[in-house]
Specification:
- This protein is mainly beta and about 180 residues long.
- It is about 10% helix and about 40% strand.
- The longest helix is centred in the first third of the chain and has 20 residues.
Length: about 180
Amino acid sequence: MKTKNTGPISGKALFVWLAAVGLIFLLFSLAGCSESDTPNIPALYLSGDGVGEAEAVRGAYAWKIGLATTEISDTLLRLEAMREENTITVGGETMLTLSNKPGSIVKQYKSVTSYGISLPDHTIYDDGTREVTDSLSPRLLTDSAGNAVILTPFEPGEYLFVMSVEYNRGSADYGVKIIVEG
C-alpha cells in the first residue's frame, strides 16, 4: 500500500488559513476584545462659586467600544456610599455647574437626560418631574454656554443627587451627596 505525500501546504490552502485567522483577529478587535474591560468614561464634577467641588460617583453605564456596547446596570448609587470627595456643602438654592474636568468648566457630555434627588432614608425628594415654576424646588438648567447647572434644594438637609448623562459613545449615571446648610 502506498501513501500519498502531500508535501508542504499549497499556496491556496495557506492563503485561506491566513485569511481566516486574520478575519477572526479583526472581528475580535472590532468587538472591543482588544481594549480593556473598563471603558474610559469621563469623570463628572460639580462646582459652584465659593463652595468648592465634588467628584460624582459613576454608577450604571452603557458604553460603545468598537462595535460592541458594554453595559453595567447593577451599580447602585447610595447616599451612605458617598465619601468626602463625593460631597459638596452649599447654602439653599445654590447653582452648581457640571463639568468633566476638575477646576474648570470643560464639557464632554452632550446632555443630562434625567435627574432625581433622594433623602437619607431613600425616599424620593424629587424625581425630576417638578415644574420650573415650583417655588423652592431644585432644578436642572442650562447656562448660556450650554453647561448643565443644578439649582440645589432650598430646605437644609442631606440629599443624593443622581443624574443620567449622555455622551457621544454612550451614557452613564452619576451620583453626588449634597449637604444644604440652613
